[in-house]
Amino acid sequence: MGHIWSLVSTPVLKAPVLLFSVPFLFLLLAYHFARIPYVKIITACLTGLILFSTIYEKKIFGIQFMGFKHTSSMMLKWNKQYGEENIYTVYNVNNPNYLNFYANQTGDSIVIDQSVIEFGSSEYIRKQIKSRQDQFCIVGYSEKLTLPQVFEITLEQYPQIVEFYQYENSAVFLLMKSDPGGQEPKRELFSALDLYEKETPSWNLDQEYIKADTIGNRIYYELNATNLYGPEFKFLKSESEKMNHYYLKLKIQASCADSTQLTSTFTVNRNGVPLENNGEVFWQGYDFENMLIDSYDSISKTGTAYWAFEIPSFIKADDEIQLSLWNRNGSPVKIYGMEIWLVENIWN
Question: Has this prediction a pTM greater than 0.85?
Fold first, then answer.
C-alpha cells in the first residue's frame, strides 16, 4: 500500500518507513531462533550481553544531563559571583526551561536575553550587544548547532574570556569587555591582500580595478557592475595543519552605499571541477552589506565586516578552497583591506 500510495500521490517510502517493517523481521528471526537447541540458555546469554553493551558501554546508567545541568550550574555561579544585573546572556537552546529545570532545584532561575539563535541571527545579536552596557556576557549553546560567527560577534564587544567550559554538544563562556588577565582564542593571520604589490601569490584580482582615492591617496579594489567578483584567494586545505582544529575568519574593510549587496563566498574545487556534496555543487556564503553599513566610521569612511566558519570535514587535504567577494547588484564597493585568519576552535 505504501508503494502504491507513493506512485499515485506522494512519496512516503523513506527511511522512517522501515520502523514499521522491522518488527516483522524480528518475528521471522525469532521463529527460526526458537528451533535452536538450548534456546533458553542462549537467549539468557544474549540478553546479558546486550544489556551489558547497552547499559555499561554506552554509560546510560543514571541520568543523562546532555550538558544542561553543567552549563546551568556555571551560569548560576557566574550570576552570583559577578551579579546577574551585570551580565547579558546569549544562549542557544530549544527551551530555557531545560536549564531552569536544574536551576529551580537550587531555588534559583536563569534569565536568557537571547535564546533563539538561527543561522541568520548574528546581525541582530550584534546590534543588541553593541547597545549593551553590561560588563560581562555569557554566550553558549546546548544541543543546538551554533555557528562560530555568533562567538565572534560576542567577542567583538567582549574580547576577554574569563572562563569557559565545553561538554558534549554544549559549551558556555563568560566574556568580559576588558580584563588584563583574560584570554582570547589563538589567532593566526593566514593571508592578507596587498594592493600595492603587482604580484600577489594565491590572490587573483584584475589590476584594472585597483585605484586610488583622490583624498588621502588610499589604494582600494573596486567592485562594480562590470567587475562583480573578487578579490579571490585560493589555497589547499593541506597548506596548514591547523585547518582541522581552527575555523576561518574572512575580514574586510570597505566602503559602500546603502543599496550595496555584497556577499562573501566559499567554494571548493576537486580535481579541477566544482565539488559536489549530496548531489549539489557545494557553496557557502554570508552577506556583508548590513555589517558594513552598521559599522561605518565617519573618519576612515569605511566599515568592517567578517565571516567566521568551519571547513566541512568532507573537504580533503588536496581540495582547492576559494574565498571571494560577490557584488550581487553591481553597486560600487571599495575594498581597502581583506584578511583571512585562522582562529582556534574552542567554540564547538
Answer: no
